[in-house]
Amino acid sequence: AAITTHALFPRQQRIGQPPSLSLSQDVVSVQSTDGTSPGPVVSVPKFLFSCGATFMVEGLANGVTGMAGLGRHPISIPSLFSAAFSFDRKFAICLTSSTKSKGVIFFGNGPYIFHPNIDVSKDLIYTPLILNPVSTDAIYYEGSPSTEYFVQVKSIKINGKTVPLNSSLLSIDDQGNGGTKISTVNPYILLETSIYNAVIKAFVQEINANVSQVAAVSPFGACFSSNNIGKTRAGPAVPPIDLVLQSELVYWRIWGANSMVQVNENVLCLGVVDGGLNPRTSIVIGGHQLEDNLIQIDQATSRLGFSSSLLLKQTTCSNFNFTSIA
């Protein structure tokens, strides 16, 4: 049934001004789980959604047919599901790095158990979610805060060495500019130009001297011959990148599987992209950096939990038991 008295403006960063769509409702059925394996199918009545045109998914990954609203909003999927099933406004997302296997998203509390019987929820590292007081949507009411998820990155380290950069860009100003957010819309991490240049320079300095830098492949600015880059459980053997959070002891380590992109058989590129001068957000952590990392968003306590690379735990996001019914 369509709710014609309301309009929805879905935000897709790559298409600019969003269209006005009618808000509709229906019953949706989803697979339940105890965190170990699939349970019975359950239904959510009065589930709100909109039907959009195909151009709404232009610029997104191949095969994408729609968008799921997971932000801080009363009609986002986490809000609707928590109201329907009386659990905390919490969800966890685990994106697979493979085009041939599925990732998984959990709504509600853990555990999150992946083969071989690894409960990822036990080893999450937590950092506060920061509320951006100014909406980052294309259309919003004055005074509305952002519905996106921001964290406080205080510095960046490469190979354990702090990258020199303008630290004021890491905080959100009174206009809502700056800071760091999580986004599955952007395929790779976006960095404000001065941060981007500093990270590229530091990474090139720290990579093994036997590794040859080669011509850049768009949209990346630093690419290397893969001939002398070794392999580890967590991907290519390159300097780790640390996003230092609320203290020096709390950091999100990005290993080679999430920092490097194989652009062809012989070339690996550092998977960071120049976000331009004066972007709305200084650092946007993109989808590639999230692959095979479990990310938990807890709206109720306003904190983010992250696992870092599951490859180090000898599992992946595709290793949830999707077949056996509990």
UniProtKB/TrEMBL annotation:
It is found in: Secreted, Extracellular space. Residues 1-307 form the Peptidase A1 domain. One of its GO terms (cellular component) is extracellular region. The keyword Transferase does not apply. Keywords: Secreted, Signal. GO terms for molecular function: aspartic-type endopeptidase activity. Its main location: secreted. GO terms for biological process: proteolysis. InterPro entries: Aspartic_peptidase_A1, PEPTIDASE_A1, Peptidase_aspartic_dom_sf, TAXi_C, TAXi_N. It holds the Pfam family TAXi_N. It comes from the Eukaryota. Belongs to the peptidase A1 family. This is Peptidase A1.
